[in-house]
C-alpha cells in the first residue's frame, strides 16, 4: 500500500513547477486587472468576516462572559482567572489572522482582489476590535461581583492581552515565526506562566495609575507592531517568485 508521503512526492513530481517568467506574467496581469477596482477598508472587513472561524468568536465571548457565572457558582470566574486567559485569546486571534501562512496559501492570496496584506489587515482589524470591545464588557460584569472599578479591571485584562499580541506580532515577522504560526500559543503560555509567577511572588503593588499608563503605552506599541507586520505580510506585487 502506498503511503501518503510517497503519494505526495509522486503528485508533486507529476505536476511540476511553472516557469518563473510565466508566473510573473500571470501575477502581474491579475494584479493589473484587480487594481482597477478600489476596495475600501469596510468592504475588506465585511468580506473577511465570513471567513473567520466560529471558534475564535466563541473563545473570546466565553472568556469575556465568565463573570456571568459568578464566584458563588464557579470559583474560577474571577478577575485573575479571566486575565490568565487573555494571552490565549490574543494568541488565537493572531493565529486566525495568519491562517493563510499556516496553510501555505499566501501565494494564492497574493493574486486575489484583496491581496495577502489586505486579508491580514482586515482580519486583524476585525478580530482586534471585537476582542478589545469584549474587555470592557467583561470588566463591567466583574465590577458587579466585587468592589473593584471598571477601569482597574480593564487595565488588568489589557496588560496580558497586549503583551501577548506584541510578542506574537514580533515573532511572526521572523523566519521562525513565518514557518511556525502556532508559536503564538507558546507565547501565550509563556505570558500566562510569567503572570502567574508575578501574582504569586510580587511583594508590591505598582498602583493603578502606573498600570493604566503601562496599558496605554502597550496599546500604542501594539498598534505600531501591527502596522509593521502588515507591511511584511505582502506588498500586493509579485509574491510567487
Shape: elongated
Structural class: mainly alpha
Poorly predicted regions are 71-76, 235-241
Please report the distance between the alpha carbons of the first and last residues. 36 Å
Strand content: under 5%
Give the overall pLDDT as a whole number. 77
Order of helices and strands: HHHHHHHHHHHH
What is Rg?
Answer: 21 Å
- Based on the structure, what is the oligomeric state of the protein chains? single chain
Number of strands: 0
Biggest sheet statistics = none
Count of alpha/pi helices: 12
Binned, the helix content reads over 70%
Summarize the entry for a quick read.
By secondary structure, this protein is mostly helical. The protein has helices at residues 4-15, 20-34, 41-49, 54-64, 79-97, 99-102, 106-109, 115-143, 150-172, 175-179, 183-201, 208-233. The chain is built from 12 helices and no strands.
